[in-house]
Amino acid sequence: MDLTSEMGLKLLFSPISSHIVVRTACCTVGTVLPIYSTFKAVENNDQNEQQKWLLYWTVYGSFSVAEVFADKIISWFPLYYHAKFAFLVWLQLPSANGARHLYMSHLRPFLVRHQARLDQISEYIYNEMSKIISAHRAEIQFAKALFLKLMSSVSQIVWDLIHPVQRQPNHLIEGPRQADSDTESDNEN
Fold this sequence. Notes:
The chain is mainly alpha-helical. The protein has helices at residues 3-13, 18-43, 47-74, 80-92, 98-113, 115-135, 137-162, 171-174, 178-188. Helix 2 runs antiparallel to helix 3, helix 2 (18-43) packs parallel to helix 4 (80-92) and helix 3 (47-74) packs antiparallel against helix 4 (80-92). The mean pLDDT is 84.
């Protein structure tokens, strides 16, 4: 086993750092890599890849909704995040085709069986969202302007951190420079 793999496994299973590392790995494998893969499928106009990633996002979204409710309980189980990591990898592996399998065997039959009721619920939610947006248009515009102003400030702060400007020292607090006091003593003589 090469050094990189050995260090990765030690880090992954280390009791001290394992929780942070494996949660970061779950986020990376569960969202970051699929986002880029979805981008590539859309940009290349690859219908097979697009379908693959649509199925993945459908299963991942369903898993995320279930996890919101179950996370407080199941996250206490030992190696939960390790199992979640393995599950997310399994969903994406071309050889396992996990997302397609879960979609076809569980999610699709459930959605087809409840499609009429789910359509009613989604239509109701969209209508209520439209009403809320229409009723609070001024507040939304204010929040948008505030958000844009905040983002501009954050952008400027980040720019200043990345590209620091050398500021001239302020002599009001420091007092006179040594060279200034030497010139004054020369003028007195």
